[in-house]
């Protein structure tokens, strides 16, 4: 099987498998986030669970990190190899005639998303780790001890319009990335055979609804704090 | 109509090559694109210059020899055709037309617009066949009924003419549409199932060895393919390869 | 007795091949690996021969001028391949296929060869299916058949409109398997420029590497020529641009007799010519005649109006249309053999009834078929009171399923929708029945030199039936040559490898080199195409669908004249040691300029009309067949085999008398 993952198609598969994982992750992440729009309590409880449950923290979180890293490292490796497969560029190439902008620019939408993830790490994740594992405060409570801190923090993050703007842009790029990536992943594992149209429609729905959900959450809190 | 042509000229494999401008006049809209190239070459021969070398043979869209990247697209702006079937009515008087060879590391230029596509040959040799010797007593052709839809799908995959437009139009210079079509043709037929495992492994391995890029499912190949080979064939090849590996595993 | 020995075995016709195979000399497997065979050309005949010979254990070197064997022009055959399988249960048999082929060939083919062809036809289908050729199937999963011109049964197997392509890809895959095994050395982008004879036997070839321009010597114990026909002598034909007669002509000059060069097939259903710039003609499969009805306007004034673009075909009322094939040949109607259909079209167009600006086109109309299929479909789907539009839609869907790719191709080229307005067609040179003379073993008059497929003369007589070319190519390559060549090679098991440094190789290479240098240093003023077009015009006008003594004599003189001018004034740019397409063309056209003259000479001595060869002096003067071609079996039931003597005009005629023991000689009638 190791031979398989060294083949071009094997790598495509690996890329698709990590994509599936990330696609599922996005759904869960949004499911948690969206609760903040209608129920502060529910959001706090879910966040606390996610942030402190050992299975998630020490089981799924490393897998997630590996998935993300793998997906973008593999993406870069393949991009480099693919670029190298055409040593002399066309003098004139009309890519728009036969393929979508999204499909031709996955590396760029991917890079923007990567930049966002870095920002997200600095913004949410590192302070989170700091609180929980450096300072050892696993309570999830506000400094004054009055209830959970998660919702409060979330609202606070979306005050700055510049940050909200960057957030929105990143999710638009994610939508573009998914518009090609979703069906592409299914195509890579050969799951589109005979149901390509259906898969494309599901892909479109997913790629618009999920990023839109994140954007709605951000804007909601920006205008309602 | 009168046209300006920007054509890639390269004396040989080692030459660096460059784009050169030419003018042709009084081109009829009923001419095929290659007939327009004939006019240019006749003009060049008569003025003592070397004509532009380009591959072509049957001139009816089936041999797969012609291979021009015209105005940024493999086989030019029309759909479902090869360069030899492209007609000048697709262009307007005064147009500038850019003509380049297929570009891919695995398809090195031999001269001008002629490229070396023997990488495709080696992929086919790696497994693009059913191992059956010629004899007068092969089993009767009707002894294995094949469902019509399978036969039809196999035919659709087999319609590939091996021109290389898929590689030329893919941003990654991937050959997966070509290989997928051949793998599919045999995978769909009972005769081909016997060797399916080794075939897909060997053909994919050879494809990788030749230096083609990886498929990122942009679908450009499918749009530019003169024979309408679909991405389903790539999906099928991907499945076949996994199946092949699981069986052995 | 003639110098020609056809070597047809004795015995009843149905046992000849089997008995012969049983008694033939074989080469044992251990010895086969010490024997080399060169196969030039990788179409259906060459490809299947190369693959099969390699499977048997011989060392094969195969040559193709294209960049892959898969691109040989066999790939362009559309309609199908005949085989006497009788899957349809309509009374087909080996004998009937044999009979149809001999009759269709107007009784100018060798009976024993044709019978053998019919006999192995069924094996071809089995072999191809085993290779994975995706023939069309019906809903029960069994193979489907269609009917073709000139016969009364359905025996044609097909793979959409791309049968030639699929069969060639079958051969190609078989070749690839042998290339991978190291049993075939494949030389792509190589052109054979001469054959090398040692002690009277063919022992090798000189080939030019078309990429580097290098001349290469290749030796072998036998050489097989499978380079197709010479239709491009007309400049415009349905052949590929690169299709050429060089290999065949070179072996002719080295002693192989050229047989029946005047037997050329003009295919009735091609897309008409649109202008002088035209580089080739495109064939529309003959299978279209199954559903299309051929007509021209019945009134001359309507035809004139159409030619001037003032009237559309759809505006002509049913009673003002002349379905001339149905009128003249009620029994076969639109499905008469190709030569008959072609001449009938020419007759109407010459009389002024042509339907495009050049006056050289007739209609092929699908309206009736669309209506018929529409009604049929409505019935099947239980649609009552279907509107006319609905019927048309249903009918068009059936036509699309059958001929979709052809219709699409037509529309791309002509820019008219053939579902709505009738197609225009006109005859074009398509296939050459004539070729290198071979005996029953497919060996030429030079020992060790074989010729198979379209390049030889043997099976189609004066006219080839539709879907028989693929059959012959594969029969020769898969099932005939691999046996018969062993008989010759069994004497060569002790010869050992043939060295390429002998004086024969040296001299032949020198001749080839001198000719190349001549072209490059000639400094003439006119391009190769200039001469080729002039040759083509003479051939089409005077040695085309209809020939007479005066025209043929003129043609011979004119071709000679063009040839002389060519050698004085041809201009070939570029160098010898590089890819040089103009140089390639120059060599090919030089050979066509000689072949064309022999072609006209052959047509001149054959003072009868038979098959594709129509002499205006030889027509029926009265009775039901008035105006139809008149064959002369008393004086011309022979194969004309020409021996080269320095100039094409000086060629010496040898006759192989044709004997018909199993079929009674009859004037063809499709009435």
TrEMBL record, chain A:
- Which UniProt keyword terms apply here? Membrane, Transmembrane, Transmembrane helix
| Gene Ontology cellular-component terms listed | membrane
Q: Is Calcium included in the keywords of this UniProt record?
A: no
Task: Supply the InterPro entries for this chain.
Answer: Cytochrome_b-558, SQR/QFR_C/D
Highest rank taxon of the organism: Bacteria
Keyword Transmembrane part of the UniProt annotation: yes
Q: Which residues form a coiled coil?
A: none
Chain ranges passing through the membrane: 55-78, 106-126, 164-186, 206-223
> Which CDD domains does the UniProt entry name for this protein?
SQR_TypeB_2_TM
Supply the name of the protein: Succinate dehydrogenase / fumarate reductase cytochrome b subunit
Q: What is the lineage of its organism?
A: Bacteria, Pseudomonadati, Bacteroidota, Flavobacteriia, Flavobacteriales
UniProtKB/TrEMBL annotation, chain B:
User: What keywords are annotated for this sequence in UniProt?
Assistant: 2Fe-2S, 4Fe-4S, Iron, Iron-sulfur, Metal-binding, Oxidoreductase
Please list the residue ranges annotated as the 4Fe-4S ferredoxin-type domain: 151-181
Q: Does the keyword Cytoplasm apply?
A: no
Q: Which cofactor does it need?
A: [2Fe-2S] cluster; [3Fe-4S] cluster; [4Fe-4S] cluster
Q: Which GO terms describe its biological process?
A: respiratory electron transport chain; tricarboxylic acid cycle
- Which Gene Ontology molecular function entries are recorded, alphabetically? 2 iron, 2 sulfur cluster binding; 4 iron, 4 sulfur cluster binding; electron transfer activity; metal ion binding; oxidoreductase activity
Specify the superkingdom. Bacteria
- Record family assignment: Belongs to the succinate dehydrogenase/fumarate reductase iron-sulfur protein family.
Q: What is the designated name of this protein?
A: Succinate dehydrogenase / fumarate reductase iron-sulfur subunit
Q: Which organism is it from?
A: Maribacter polysiphoniae
UniProtKB/TrEMBL annotation, chain C:
UniProt GO BP: anaerobic respiration
The source's domain of life comes to: Bacteria
Molecular function per GO: electron transfer activity; flavin adenine dinucleotide binding; succinate dehydrogenase (quinone) activity
Indicate the residues that form the catalytic site: 338 (proton acceptor)
The record gives the membrane topology as:
Peripheral membrane protein
Q: Its catalytic activity?
A: a quinone + succinate = fumarate + a quinol
Task: Give the primary localization class.
Answer: membrane
Q: Report one GO cellular component.
A: plasma membrane
The cofactor required is: FAD
Q: Which keywords are on file for this protein?
A: Cell membrane, Electron transport, FAD, Flavoprotein, Membrane, Oxidoreductase, Transport
* Residues annotated as domain FAD-dependent oxidoreductase 2 FAD-binding: 36-470
Question: Coiled coil among the record's keywords?
Answer: no
Q: Sorted alphabetically, which Pfam families does this protein's record hold? A: FAD_binding_2 (PF00890), Succ_DH_flav_C (PF02910)
The residue ranges of the Fumarate reductase/succinate dehydrogenase flavoprotein-like C-terminal domain are: 532-670
Which family does the record assign? Belongs to the FAD-dependent oxidoreductase 2 family. FRD/SDH subfamily.
| Stated name of the protein | succinate dehydrogenase
Which organism does this sequence originate in?
Answer: Maribacter polysiphoniae
Phylogenetic lineage = Bacteria, Pseudomonadati, Bacteroidota, Flavobacteriia, Flavobacteriales
């Amino acid at each position: 099987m190791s031979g398989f993952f060294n083949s071009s198609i094997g790598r495509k598969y690996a890329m698709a498998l990590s994509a599936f994982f990330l696609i599922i992750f996005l759904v869960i992440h949004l499911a948690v986030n969206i609760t903040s729009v209608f129920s502060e309590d529910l959001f706090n409880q879910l966040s606390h669970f996610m942030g402190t449950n050992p299975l998630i923290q020490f089981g799924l979180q490393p897998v997630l990190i590996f998935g993300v890293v793998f997906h973008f490292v593999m993406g870069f490796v393949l991009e480099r190899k693919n670029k190298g497969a055409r040593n002399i560029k066309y003098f004139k190439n009309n890519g728009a005639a036969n393929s979508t902008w999204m499909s031709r620019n996955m590396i760029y939408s991917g890079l923007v998303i990567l930049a966002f993830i870095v920002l997200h790490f600095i913004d949410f994740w590192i302070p989170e780790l700091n609180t929980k594992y450096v300072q050892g405060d696993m309570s999830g409570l506000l400094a004054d001890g009055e209830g959970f801190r998660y919702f409060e923090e979330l609202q606070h993050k979306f005050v700055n319009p510049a940050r909200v703007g960057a957030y929105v842009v990143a999710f638009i790029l994610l939508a573009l990335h998914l518009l090609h990536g979703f069906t592409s992943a299914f195509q890579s594992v050969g799951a589109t055979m005979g149901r390509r149209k259906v898969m494309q429609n599901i892909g479109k729905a997913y790629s618009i609804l999920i990023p839109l959900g994140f954007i709605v959450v951000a804007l909601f809190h920006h205008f309602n704090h | 109509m009168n046209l300006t042509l920007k054509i890639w000229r390269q004396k040989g494999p080692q030459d660096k090559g460059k784009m050169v401008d030419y003018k042709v006049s009084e081109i009829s809209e009923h001419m095929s694109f290659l007939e327009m190239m004939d006019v240019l070459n006749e003009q060049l021969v008569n003025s003592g210059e070397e004509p532009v070398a380009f591959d072509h043979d049957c001139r009816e869209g089936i041999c797969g020899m012609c291979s021009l990247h015209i105005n940024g697209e493999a086989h030019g702006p029309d759909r479902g055709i090869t360069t030899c079937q492209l007609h000048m009515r697709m262009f307007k008087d005064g147009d500038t037309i850019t003509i380049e060879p297929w570009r891919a590391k695995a398809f090195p230029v031999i001269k001008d617009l002629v490229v070396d596509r023997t990488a495709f040959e080696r992929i086919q040799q790696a497994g693009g066949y059913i191992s059956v010797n010629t004899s007068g007593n092969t089993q009767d052709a009707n002894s294995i009924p094949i469902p019509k839809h399978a036969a039809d799908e196999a035919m659709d995959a087999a319609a590939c003419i091996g021109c290389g437009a898929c590689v030329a139009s893919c941003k990654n210079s991937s050959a997966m549409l070509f290989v997928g079509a051949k793998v599919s043709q045999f995978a769909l037929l009972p005769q081909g199932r016997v060797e399916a495992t080794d075939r897909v492994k060997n053909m994919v391995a050879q494809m990788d060895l030749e230096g083609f890029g990886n498929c990122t499912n942009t679908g450009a190949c499918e749009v530019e393919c003169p024979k309408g080979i679909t991405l389903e064939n790539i999906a099928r090849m991907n499945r076949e390869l996994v199946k092949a590996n699981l069986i052995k595993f | 007795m003639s110098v020609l020995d056809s070597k047809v075995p004795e015995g009843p016709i149905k046992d000849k091949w089997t008995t012969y195979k049983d008694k033939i000399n074989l080469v044992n497997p251990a010895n086969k690996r010490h024997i080399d065979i060169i196969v030039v050309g990788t179409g259906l005949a060459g490809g299947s021969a190369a693959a099969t010979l390699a499977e048997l254990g011989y060392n094969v070197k195969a040559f193709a001028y294209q960049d892959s064997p898969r691109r040989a022009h066999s790939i362009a055959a559309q309609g199908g391949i005949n085989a006497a399988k009788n899957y349809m249960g309509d009374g087909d048999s080996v004998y009937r296929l044999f009979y149809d082929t001999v009759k269709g060939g107007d009784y100018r083919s060798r009976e024993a060869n044709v019978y053998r062809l019919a006999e192995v036809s069924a094996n071809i289908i089995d072999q191809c299916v085993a290779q994975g050729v995706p023939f069309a199937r019906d809903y029960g999963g069994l193979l489907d058949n269609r009917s073709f011109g000139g016969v009364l049964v359905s025996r044609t197997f097909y793979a959409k409109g791309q049968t030639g392509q699929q069969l060639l890809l079958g051969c190609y895959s078989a070749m690839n398997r042998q290339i991978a095994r190291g049993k075939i050395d494949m030389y792509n982008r190589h052109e054979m420029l001469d054959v090398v004879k040692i002690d009277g036997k063919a022992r090798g070839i000189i080939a030019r590497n078309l990429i580097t321009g290098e001349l290469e010597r290749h030796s072998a114990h036998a050489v097989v020529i499978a380079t197709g026909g010479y239709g491009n002598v007309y400049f415009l034909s349905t052949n590929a641009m690169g299709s050429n007669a060089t290999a065949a002509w070179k072996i002719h000059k080295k002693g192989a007799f050229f047989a029946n060069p005047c037997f050329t097939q003009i295919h009735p259903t091609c897309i008409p010519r649109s202008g002088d710039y035209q580089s080739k003609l495109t064939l529309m499969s003959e299978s279209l005649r199954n559903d299309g009805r051929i007509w021209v306007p019945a009134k001359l004034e309507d035809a004139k109006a159409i030619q001037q673009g003032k009237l559309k075909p759809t505006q002509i009322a049913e009673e003002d249309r002349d379905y001339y094939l149905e009128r003249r040949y009620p029994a076969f109607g639109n499905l008469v053999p190709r030569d008959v259909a072609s001449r009938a079209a020419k007759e109407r167009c010459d009389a002024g009834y042509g339907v495009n600006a050049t006056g050289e086109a007739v209609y092929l109309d699908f309206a009736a078929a669309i209506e018929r299929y529409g009604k049929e479909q409505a019935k099947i789907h239980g649609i009552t009171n279907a509107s006319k539009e609905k019927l048309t839609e249903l009918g068009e869907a059936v036509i699309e399923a059958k001929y979709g790719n052809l219709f699409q191709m037509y529309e791309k080229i002509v820019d008219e929708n053939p579902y709505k307005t009738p197609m225009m067609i006109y005859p074009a040179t398509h296939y050459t029945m004539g070729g290198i003379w071979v005996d029953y073993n497919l060996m030429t008059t030079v020992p060790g030199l074989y010729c198979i497929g379209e390049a030889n003369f043997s099976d189609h007589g004066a006219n080839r039936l539709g879907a028989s070319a693929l059959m012959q190519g594969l029969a020769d390559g898969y099932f005939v040559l691999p046996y018969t060549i062993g008989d010759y090679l069994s004497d060569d098991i002790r010869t050992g490898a043939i060295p390429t440094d002998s004086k024969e190789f040296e001299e032949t290479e020198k001749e080839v080199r001198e000719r190349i240098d001549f072209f490059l240093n000639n400094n003439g003023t006119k391009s190769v195409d200039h001469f080729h077009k002039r040759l083509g015009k003479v051939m089409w006008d005077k040695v085309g669908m209809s020939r007479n003594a005066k025209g043929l004599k003129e043609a011979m003189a004119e071709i000679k004249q063009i040839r002389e001018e060519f050698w004085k004034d041809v201009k070939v740019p570029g160098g010898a040691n590089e890819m040089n397409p103009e140089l390639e063309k120059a060599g090919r056209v030089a050979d066509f300029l000689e072949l064309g003259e022999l072609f006209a000479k052959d047509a001149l001595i054959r003072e009868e009309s038979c098959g594709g060869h129509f002499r205006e002096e030889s027509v029926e003067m009265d009775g039901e067949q008035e105006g139809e071609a008149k064959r002369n079996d008393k004086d011309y039931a022979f194969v004309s085999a020409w021996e080269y003597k320095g100039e094409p005009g000086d060629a010496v005629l040898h006759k192989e008398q044709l004997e018909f023991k199993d079929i009674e000689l009859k004037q063809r009638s499709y009435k």
